[in-house]
Structure formats: structure tokens, C-alpha cells
Design brief:
By secondary structure, this protein is α+β, with helices and mostly antiparallel strands. The chain has a single domain, classed as 3-Layer(aba) Sandwich (Aminopeptidase). 35% of the residues lie in helices and 32% in strands. It has a four-stranded antiparallel beta sheet, with helices on both faces. It has a three-stranded antiparallel beta sheet with strand order 5-7-6, with helices on one face. It is globular. The two termini are 16 Å apart.
């Protein structure tokens, strides 16, 4: 089940966020950085994001537990040709490959449409091949690469874009 996030979902979203980063980025980011991630800090951040209402946040629930989330809104960095952005999408390892990711994207696309946006871009670490494959299966076209500093390391991130939300393949 996918639904809009509520303020009281913030701790569960933070749990998924931290757990997903710690599993997804193991070997890509320094261990001490991953261990330093705080569910409390992320819960405060997600309460603020949900409360502001300028972006759209959705959660995936399975058997009453939040197992994933996605957020999106207006493109943030001034990327030419894109007005919408899928900011984040994470599903805990145990719930992956069950369709939650696709349905979270579908809900986020609907949210972008509510905001009057008709295209979308997403940024992903170059070395996160599973996520890159996911975006490619959804019909995302490679846009460009740029450096990103996370903690004490500089990595490369790449972007995928959809010139029309109607082009997202679920």
C-alpha cells in the first residue's frame, strides 16, 4: 500500500532512510560516516519536510510497517529542461523486488502533476548500479554526471530524466 506521508510517519521514514543508506552505500561511503547517521536527526528533517508541504512524500506499507518512501517536488538545482525532481526513493532490503519502488515512483509522479510539473529528473550515485538499472527500466534517459561530496569523500553522481511524466514506464 502506498499513501501520502503524515507527520507521525517521520520516525519510520527516518528508520528506512538510515537502514537503506547503511546497506545501499556500504563500500561506497566510509563506514564511520554510515555509522554516524542518526534516525533522530532524519526524523526531525522528515517532520519538517512533511510539515512544509512544498514537496510530496509517500510511504510504502507492508503488514502495517513502513518499508519504503519517496519524495519529490520542484527541481532544486536549476537543471536545464527539468522542472520536477524525484528527490529520494528508498525501500528496505527485505521489501525490495516486490513492486514498492515502482508504486512509489507512480505516486510521486502523480504528486509532481499536482504541483503542475510535467517532467522529472533524479540523481543517483554512479556506482549504485541497482538503482541506475531501476531508473533505466522505468525509461529514464541518462542526462549527465557531476561530482558530489558526501562526508569526507567526493564521488560522482549521474542523473536520469524523463522529458514527460507520461514517458515513465511502470
Amino acid at each position: 500500500m502506498i499513501r501520502p506521508a503524515k507527520l507521525e510517519d517521520a520516525p519510520a521514514i527516518a528508520r528506512v532512510h538510515v537502514a537503506s543508506w547503511q546497506s545501499t552505500y556500504q563500500g561506497m561511503l566510509p563506514e564511520e560516516f554510515l555509522e554516524s547517521l542518526s534516525e533522530t536527526g532524519y526524523a526531525d528533517r522528515w517532520k519538517r519536510v512533511i510539515g512544509e508541504g512544498s514537496s510530496r512524500v509517500y510511504v510504502a506499507e507492508h503488514e502495517g510497517e513502513v518499508v519504503g518512501f519517496a519524495s519529490g517536488g520542484r527541481e532544486r538545482a536549476g537543471e536545464t529542461g527539468y522542472t520536477g525532481e524525484l528527490y529520494a526513493i528508498y525501500v528496505i532490503d527485505a521489501a525490495q523486488r516486490r513492486g514498492f519502488g515502482r508504486e512509489l515512483v507512480r505516486s510521486t509522479v502523480a504528486g509532481l502533476r499536482e504541483l503542475g510539473l510535467d517532467d522529472m529528473i533524479i540523481w543517483v550515485l554512479r556506482d549504485n548500479q541497482p538503482a541506475r538499472s531501476f531508473y533505466e527500466r522505468l525509461g529514464g534517459a541518462y542526462v549527465r554526471a557531476q561530482p558530489i561530496t558526501i562526508g569526507s569523500v567526493t564521488l560522482e553522481e549521474v542523473s536520469y530524466g524523463w522529458r514527460r511524466l507520461d514517458d515513465v514506464r511502470y
